[in-house]
């Protein structure tokens, strides 16, 4: 059994893990990345389409190209990378248990960065009735089969859910000669990015059916058809619209869930709205010295945002670990931080961070998503009594993550009160 | 030709329990299962509760067999090394009428010989289950009740039977049965022929069809369908007790059931169907499950559902909801173990003993084997080992250091062992039942491609040939045009 010790251990070697590790390393910490796959890069390795890096690198890259740039930086650094190594336990005292084919590893860490990414919601989660045949799979798994394993999941494909992975796969499968019969979306609007609707469906004449869902799965042992139907504004199925569509594959692109089983082992509290850890403006969880970033924290649509967030987490983790070391050697007591909560208000689904240390020292960025599309609205940040930030009027979509940067001056008023603050997006009448 | 003293038709929990029982005697026995694996009929679609036996009417066949079967479980679990937990059962009353019903059940239970039953009040219930609905007033408490993983039990029975000489043959649907002039039976499957002196019909929902092959039309069967749900292990405030509401006339009601592996099952609905293959989930059934469990646990988080499934209880019509276990009066040597509706899991060990006695009465000589081995080794379960044991195992077999299923922490070593196990696993679901790879919250989203690759490699097949379960359930269909790699 191997025993190891690092200032910062990063769990997960996707774009989030690599960016966090690089920053922590830059700050002078000793760093390890633990990655369960046989290469770094995370989900990017199977995203062979382009559209990555537009804001961070100011150029359009494919997923593997974006990953490559970071993999090279990691190689050039003195970060220790453990591939084919899976973390199976994380204790509150930062003890990490991992496994690979050389045996068990126990790692001690001054600080930990959670960067485990997310998983896809499955058929069970939305309880689609019907038979349980082969031919029903998540879009990400199909992406893996087609892009990496070089295998087809079927010939005639129906896609449920208009998440980005489903949209990207609609195009990919079409290009590979499979027939994509349509994308069906329960909501009255698409869940994916506008550019993906345009480039992946419209350009290939793949129909998008809104307010429609799959109501039955037909065929055994292999899928033979699905029944689809329109739903009303309360999502109740409209019986007379039921229609059976012959197909051999149903792809599910019905949402992603942050992968937080390890976080929970370590005692980190989760935000029920994101299913990711509850973090403050430093991306610190409520377990001292454990930080989170990327899709494990909240689901991102753009990897560039993942990278920025991860750099912040990596920096904070290194600062924490190095300070703790110094504090121990100088016998200083640990500081106690006072925080206030940031909660989502009108039309807002969630915010990251969900708490803020007061008094604020540095500019902070609040990320949020709206719950429904709004044509004309403005973000308003307020306490129960006063508004201290008001954004420009713009259109909002649930598929787009929004950010507001606040400067300490704008937050100064918070010094005097410890009232929670709320982020709302209010409709503005034309 | 392949001659056996006894051929068992059907490899569910009933057939495998019988195989296990008969393997104790100097007999030649084969079990023929039509599916690609054993335990894939009703045995894979149920709640796994070892009902202690307060339900059946005293004096019925079911009453005797249920209690005796349930009592065998703790010892069987030790000998055959399968998982068992002892959560006990609450049958919960919400009204005065319910209380009368619970007293009635208590009486049944005592008459049937169930131990330690008691009626408890709301306070006693809430001590154990703080999340319980405030409307719950009293319960019949059966502290001895256990829960098992029913297909693990069937696999354990079959493996032990095999180790003691029984032949277990899968993908062998019996399609014809003839009684020859020498008194022996001739059985056909699509690719083999067998002869035997005795047949045990344990074909679940198809027992009447199998009987008809032998010219027997003593009974007719229909399935009673049930939907079930599985909830994530990480659900907060998981119930510790199996909790049923006071039952209706045809069903035990919607219960929450803690499982051997730390999940919670919600089951089951009960609807008579005509189609014996319709193991579907139905939207009203799923809703009924959610509504039903909320009557017991109002706070239970339906967002924690990771899977729905279903099963068909084999019901012999016009038989008072009882089992049908008897030698055919018209075709001697043909023994029925049919109509094994709920609680067939609980009853299986006793059904097997009864079938043994019926064979004995029918003239089969039962001589115990001196070298019978009652014990079964189970496959190594990586997560059950200590850190040092895990480390040592990996040093010896590096495949145990490669995690395939991340949700359930299943290693490649375990999957390889299952593929080459005593009853080999050649499909994705067979591997899932033995190792739990794909059973977790991502339902195989991350590991399916890896399991397919391991199966293809170990069996020398193309990935495109690998099936989910039954023949025809291939998961992939050829190479892509040639884009990637
Ligand atoms: C199909 C798809 C299409 C996309 N398209 C675009 C696009 O066009 N443009 C764009 O900018 N963005 C796109 N994105 C978004 C972006 O790529 C992701 O948000 C980003 O990859 C998330 O990074 P991450 O590091 O948080 O997670 P991941 O990339 O998922 O990395 C997490 C890593 O952690 C590892 N891990 C997890 N648990 C453990 C453990 N216990 N032990 C060891 N290792 C572990 C995993 O193996 C994985 O490598 C897309 C995403 C997907 C899924
Ligand atoms: C929803 C539900 C919940 C339940 N809950 C419980 C519970 O909590 N506790 C409990 O004790 N019981 C429960 N039961 C009942 C239990 O599942 C059954 O009683 C039991 O599984 C029956 O087992 P079996 O072996 O008789 O049938 P099966 O498991 O159906 O086995 C019959 C086998 O015969 C095979 N076969 C059929 N025809 C042929 C042929 N021609 N040739 C070869 N093989 C053939 C089939 O493939 C099948 O594998 C439940 C049942 C359901 C449906």
Automatic annotation (TrEMBL), chain A:
EC number: 1.8.1.-
GO MF annotations in UniProt: oxidoreductase activity
Top EC class for this record: oxidoreductase
Keyword field contains Oxidoreductase: yes
Entry-linked InterPro entries: FAD/NAD-bd_sf, FAD/NAD-binding_dom, Metab_Enz_Cyan_OpOx_G3PDH
Domain FAD/NAD(P)-binding: 6-303
Pfam family membership, one: Pyr_redox_2
Keywords per UniProt: Oxidoreductase
Gene3D superfamilies: FAD/NAD(P)-binding domain
Name of the protein described by the UniProt record: Alkyl hydroperoxide reductase subunit F
Upper classification of the organism: Bacteria, Bacillati, Bacillota, Clostridia, Eubacteriales
From TrEMBL, chain B:
Pfam families: DAO, Fer2_BFD
GO molecular-function term, one example from the UniProt record: glycerol-3-phosphate dehydrogenase (quinone) activity
Domain FAD dependent oxidoreductase intervals: 5-358
Record-linked InterPro entries: BFD-like_2Fe2S-bd_dom (IPR007419), BFD-like_2Fe2S-bd_dom_sf (IPR041854), FAD-dep_OxRdtase (IPR006076), FAD/NAD-bd_sf (IPR036188), G3P_Oxidase/Oxidoreductase (IPR052745)
Enzyme class: oxidoreductase
EC number: 1.1.5.3
Keyword check for Flavoprotein: no
Oxidoreductase recorded as keyword: yes
CDD domains linked to this entry: GlpA-like_Fer2_BFD-like (cd19946)
UniProt entry keywords in alphabetical sequence: Oxidoreductase
Domain BFD-like [2Fe-2S]-binding: 403-456
UniProt name for this protein: Anaerobic glycerol-3-phosphate dehydrogenase subunit A
Originating organism: Acetobacterium wieringae
